[in-house]
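Structure in, sequence out. Go:
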């Protein structure tokens, strides 16, 4: 394990946010885009497209493209981000798997609170099926809020009588708007990116006063995962969101769903972004790529 690299990343991130100071959402979006632009993007071919009446970016490997499609949902606390801010992660999966990806620009809160993002992700998936793709040839993947959307979109598909995708990969997913996981308090002051107060604020933007005690808002504690496809959840021990993945994995196990809970010690939220700087990031992406090719290989 790369203790020296982890120490370097931890030093660069510092102690993290100790006091929460809410900023205008447009400034948060600009700051987030600037942050994510610092992470490397492997060489891929990209083109703008439309999927389910929302903008999207088609990401393809430079060489031969294998059969199968990754539908990618970007992170950003449901109120920030775009396919461009997640391009490093999306392109890393594409180059490692040889699969194409479609990264969706779903609607953001507070202008479009819950369930707008889920509706957009479901419409994008429906559009792929309407184009003739077999559900078992599609994988949902995403990070942070987008990781949560991989699960809630699959739940919404079940509710709509649609088939679930062939696999789900979620990096540091947000899966509980009740914020009831033990790590929300236990990792406070350790997580270099988030505070409980900050997460409550971003959650309020998404909820817009709605009750978080709903399956599509708190799948880690309320979801019926019966019939779900194989799941890979990757998370770090230095995250407020750690127990979101731990508890969803338990629900998946109880529902007889194939589940891999992949926990890496001493790394921050969406540590896979640190590809090239942190061996654990490269190794985690390698494992995610293997999972995807195994489950979409048929």
């Amino acid at each position: 394990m790369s203790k020296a690299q982890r120490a370097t990343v931890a030093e660069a991130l510092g102690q993290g946010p100790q006091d929460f100071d809410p900023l205008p959402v447009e400034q948060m979006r600009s700051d987030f885009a600037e942050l994510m632009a610092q992470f490397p993007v492997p060489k891929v071919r990209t083109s703008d497209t439309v999927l389910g009446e929302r903008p999207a970016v088609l990401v393809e490997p430079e060489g031969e493209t294998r059969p199968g499609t990754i539908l990618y949902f970007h992170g950003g606390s449901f109120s920030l981000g775009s396919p461009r801010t997640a391009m490093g992660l999306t392109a890393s999966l594409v180059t490692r798997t040889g699969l194409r990806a479609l990264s969706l620009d779903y609607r953001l809160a507070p202008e479009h609170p819950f369930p707008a993002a889920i509706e957009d992700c479901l419409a994008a998936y429906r559009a792929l099926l309407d184009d003739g793709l077999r559900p078992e040839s599609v994988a949902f993947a995403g990070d942070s809020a987008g990781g949560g959307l991989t699960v809630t979109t699959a739940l919404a598909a079940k509710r709509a009588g649609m088939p679930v995708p062939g696999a789900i990969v979620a990096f540091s997913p947000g899966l509980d708007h009740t914020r009831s996981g033990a790590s929300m308090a236990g990792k406070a002051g350790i997580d270099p990116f988030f505070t409980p107060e900050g997460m409550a604020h971003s959650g309020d933007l998404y909820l817009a006063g709605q009750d978080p005690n709903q399956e599509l808002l708190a799948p880690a504690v309320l979801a019926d995962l019966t019939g779900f496809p194989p799941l890979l959840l990757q998370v770090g021990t230095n995250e407020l969101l750690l127990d979101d993945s731990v508890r969803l994995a338990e629900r998946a196990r109880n529902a007889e769903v194939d589940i891999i809970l992949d926990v890496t010690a001493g790394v921050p939220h969406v540590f896979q972004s640190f590809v090239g700087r942190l061996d654990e990031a490269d190794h985690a992406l390698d494992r995610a790529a293997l999972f995807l090719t195994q489950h979409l290989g048929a």
